[in-house]
Amino acid sequence: MSxxxxxxxxxxxxxGEGLGERGRFSLLAGWCCFxxxxxxxxxxxxxxxxxxxxxxxxxxxxxxxxIEELGLLKxxxxxxxxxxxxxxxxxxxxxxxxxxxxxxxxxxxxxNPDK
Length: 115
Hints:
Elements: E1 2-11, E2 25-34, H1 37-50, H2 67-72, H3 81-84, H4 89-108
Antiparallel strand pairs: 1-2
């Protein structure tokens, strides 16, 4: 599960009561949750490309993309480094090589499991 916080900034009812600049505004927060980190990243970057709003903290817009919107997304321009950093390529390559070597040995012995 991966989530994104949606903020709404509004004037503080306490503004001007000696709180200084920091006390002039308050933030209200809502959340949009996605089933995966990749889903959240595509939503964040896709919405930025399309100019699609997240709504407000009280009423977050966590909707997915329409078919038409998906067609407009430029996936090649998305930065997926946050997602890719979670993938350990060495582990996957080692697994692939072990299986390939094992299958090659079975094939050379005439024990091809695919036949």
